[in-house]
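Lab notebook, bench 4. The sequencing result for the construct came back, and we need a structural model before the next group meeting so we can plan mutations. Quick request posted to the team channel:

Model the 3D structure of this chain.
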Amino acid sequence: METQKLELIEKMETKGMTVAQAAKSMEFDAELLELYLHKDAYPVPQRILDKLAQVVNN
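Done. Here's the predicted structure in token form:
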């Protein structure tokens, strides 16, 4: 899960997408998403990673 989280963060950075933009596309709270997306070992629920992956891959 940590690997997937870091890969999604890298994809966001590559696209120039901010956490706020991703959160808006996901219809998710931007502050909470920002906390989840810190580059650490804290786990992110799979459903949030799945939604983020959809946004980043489109």
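The first helix runs from residue 2 to 15.
Will bring this to the meeting.
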